[in-house]
């Protein structure tokens, strides 16, 4: 099994390119199911979750090809299988995103229930409730969601909790529904906005994405289009935090500062100099130790839960004491237990991690438990004294494009080993 071996102590310096956003690419790939013609996607990141989604779509009958420029061509004109089976869904919860498109276009979907995961229970009740309200008949049996509908109808639906993939699923379903749908308390994440742009390029009529009320006027059919996936703000943020932790200076290009405002504000508070320009962000910590920063996660535009683990890593070696409060998922502190094994002084009380910065972490064998937890262990490894061996890095490969090459290019000592 692959592991990452990291020798800590190098100061990161240089430039790295942000890949396309995983959490935009996945719903956009699912949305290609809605089109009667070919969609061409550029800036799709090279990730396990993307490969899994392509396998899922391929099994349904979507014809997928990758051209010499690495653009993905998806042709859903001959889809004949409407099932998302357990063997794929269990490896990637985002498979639930095919529910809305399949139901809207083909009136039929059998999608395995994702179940719990390492960061919490993560139910999909709102996806199901919303589609029921749109007129779908849905039963949950033998671990599968069986959904049927003639034509979905437009509704006014207020989501009880802000949910990113829930908003995306209902927005996709509404594009082909009869009449107008109003989604209230919608997620405002940039990835929801990117999906709305893609849907509108296909001929959908979506307005208000990026606000908490999304209005969709249903149309009879959607056609193929071209789309460039937006940059990954979480990957961008991860490299910037690495710069701050190592006292380094890193510029991330092909990204957008406006996607990361709460993260950049926290980096400034930690003592880093943050400069931004057209398509780039640079963090310079000028060989200093960061100051610890308090974090409260919440849906966009507040501080993203997907950057929480990386800031626990920063706080673990920063000057001072700070709290990290996780408000989105109930069990997202698994990385803290691993960091404690590296000498971090972090205590967990309910959904709060109290971080007392230590001068130096020490290397230890550690285990990745979920995607962002793994990233935070890489950051910890980059500053720890000695060689850190991270096991179960398939979690990292789900969401970080070429992580060891990108960190190596910045001067990090990191390599993949097979043991
Ligand atoms: N929730 C419900 N019922 C639902 C749906 C969600 O109670 O039907 C609750 C969840 O249990 C959670 C909260 O609502 O407590 C928010 O969850 P949300 O549905 O927004 O999460 P998600 O859509 O499953 C996406 C990202 C996650 C990211 C979260 C929050 C994708 C593919 N995944 O998940 O990304 O953490 O939004 O921003 O977009 C990651 O990339 O590492 C990752 C986990």
Strand order of the largest sheet: 22-23-1-24
Question: DSSP strand (E) fraction?
Answer: 25-35%
- Overall shape: it is globular
Cα distance, first to last residue? Answer: 6 Å
- Tell me about the largest β-sheet: 4 strands, mixed
Residue windows where pLDDT falls under 50 for at least 5 positions: none
Overall average residue pLDDT = 96
Helix percent band: 25-40%
Model description:
With 419 residues, the protein is an alpha/beta fold. Helix 1 packs parallel to helix 2, helix 6 packs parallel to helix 7 and helix 11 packs parallel to helix 12. It is 32% helix and 25% strand. The radius of gyration is 21 Å and the shape is globular. Helix 10 links the parallel strand 18 and strand 19. Bound molecules: uridine-diphosphate-2(N-acetylglucosaminyl) butyric acid.
Topology (SSEs and partners):
Layout: E1 2-7, E2 13-17, H1 22-31, E3 38-42, H2 48-60, E4 63-66, E5 72-75, E6 83-84, H3 86-89, H4 99-106, E7 108-112, H5 125-133, E8 137-141, E9 144-148, E10 156-158, H6 164-175, E11 180-184, H7 190-201, E12 205-207, E13 213-217, E14 226-228, H8 233-245, E15 249-253, H9 261-269, E16 273-277, E17 280-284, E18 295-296, H10 308-317, E19 321-325, H11 334-341, E20 345-349, E21 352-356, E22 365-367, H12 371-383, E23 387-391, H13 394-399, H14 403-409, E24 413-418
Parallel strand pairs: 2-15, 3-14, 6-7, 10-11, 18-19, 22-23
Antiparallel strand pairs: 1-23, 1-24, 3-5, 4-5, 7-9, 8-9, 11-13, 12-13, 15-17, 16-17, 19-21, 20-21
The site of uridine-diphosphate-2(N-acetylglucosaminyl) butyric acid has 24 residues, from α1, α5, α6 and α12.
């Amino acid at each position: 099994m692959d592991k990452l071996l990291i020798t800590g102590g190098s100061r990161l310096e240089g430039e790295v390119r942000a890949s396309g956003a995983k959490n935009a690419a996945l719903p956009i790939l699912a949305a290609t199911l809605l089109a009667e013609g070919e969609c061409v996607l550029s800036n799709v990141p090279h990730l396990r979750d993307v490969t899994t989604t392509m396998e899922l779509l391929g099994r349904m009958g979507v014809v997928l090809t990758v051209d010499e420029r690495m653009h993905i061509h998806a042709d859903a004109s001959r889809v004949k299988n409407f099932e998302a089976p357990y063997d794929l869904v269990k490896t990637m919860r985002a498979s639930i995103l095919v529910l809305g498109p399949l139901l809207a276009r083909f009136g039929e979907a059998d999608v395995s229930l994702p179940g719990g995961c390492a960061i919490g229970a993560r139910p999909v009740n709102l996806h199901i409730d919303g589609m029921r309200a749109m007129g779908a008949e849905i039963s949950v049996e033998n671990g599968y969601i069986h959904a049927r509908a003639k034509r979905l109808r437009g509704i006014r639906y207020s989501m009880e909790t802000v949910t990113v993939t829930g908003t995306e699923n209902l927005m996709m379903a509404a594009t082909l529904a009869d009449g107008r749908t109003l989604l209230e308390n919608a997620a405002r994440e940039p990835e929801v906005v990117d999906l709305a742009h893609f849907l509108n390029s296909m001929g959908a009529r979506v307005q208000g994405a990026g606000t908490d009320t999304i209005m969709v006027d249903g149309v009879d059919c959607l056609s193929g289009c071209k789309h460039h996936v937006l940059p990954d703000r979480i990957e961008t943020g991860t490299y910037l935090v690495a710069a701050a932790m190592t006292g380094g200076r890193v510029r991330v290009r092909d990204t957008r500062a406006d996607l990361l405002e709460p993260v950049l504000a926290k980096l400034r508070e930690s003592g880093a100099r943050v400069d931004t320009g057209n398509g780039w962000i640079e963090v310079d910590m000028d060989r200093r130790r960061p100051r610890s920063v308090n974090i409260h996660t919440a849906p966009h535009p507040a501080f993203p839960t997907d950057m929480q683990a990386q800031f626990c890593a920063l706080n673990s070696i920063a000057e001072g004491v700070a709290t990290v409060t996780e408000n989105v998922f109930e069990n997202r502190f698994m990385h803290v237990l691993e960091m404690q094994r590296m000498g971090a002084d972090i205590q967990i009380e309910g959904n709060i991690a109290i971080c007392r910065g230590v001068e130096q972490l020490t290397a230890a064998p550690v285990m990745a438990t979920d995607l962002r937890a793994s990233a935070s262990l890489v950051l910890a490894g980059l500053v720890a004294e000695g060689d850190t061996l991270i096991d179960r890095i398939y979690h990292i490969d789900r969401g970080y494009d070429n992580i060891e090459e990108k960190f190596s290019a910045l001067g990090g000592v990191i390599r993949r080993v097979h043991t």
